[in-house]
Design brief:
This protein has helices spanning about 70-85, 155-175, and strands spanning about 5-10, 20, 30-40, 50-55, 65-70, 95, 105, 110-115, 135, 140. It is α+β, with helices and mostly antiparallel strands and about 180 residues long. The chain binds zinc ion (ZN) (2 copies).
Amino acid sequence: MTTIARLSTGLLRQDPYGYLCAYDWPDNCFVQAGDRGLVFAIGDASKDYETAFFEAFPREPATFIRGEGATVQDAETSAWKQFQQQVACPGHEFERRGYTNGGGFCKHCDMWMSHAFEPSTLCCICKKPTDWTHDTEGEYYCQEHQRDMPLGKWDVMQWHIAFSEYEMWCHKNGVECLL
Ligand SMILES: [Zn+2]
Ligand SMILES: [Zn+2]
């Protein structure tokens, strides 16, 4: 069966039907592609670049694969090679490679897994491993203790979430929103 990738950028305007994949991705594997993906270079905006990309989200095992290339076809080939390498892996063994959120990469096939480990950061209240949320000073809070974060240490995102929760509550309860 031919898989059709959802187009997220660029090509979308030219081809409303999507990109026909060259490889036989599993049926339950969501794929998307674009010919205008912007890649941000960390710390150096002059090194930002545009590339064609192809992204796949296989379910078994659940992971995320991204290929880049001069064209979407090249990017798909790169993603497919990574996928084949993962499928052929003799046995995944994960390492953190600097990530503290519990995600890890397989030593053998480089597969990414989002919950390979417990997060290495601890809730500052109950000391359980968590990466649920953190304050402006880098202290972490689990879901249960997120409300214990002092107001003075909320960042923009926390205020944003609190305002939208308030708005939804008003809407649900038929109360006029005062903000
Ligand atoms: Zn592996
Ligand atoms: Zn906690």
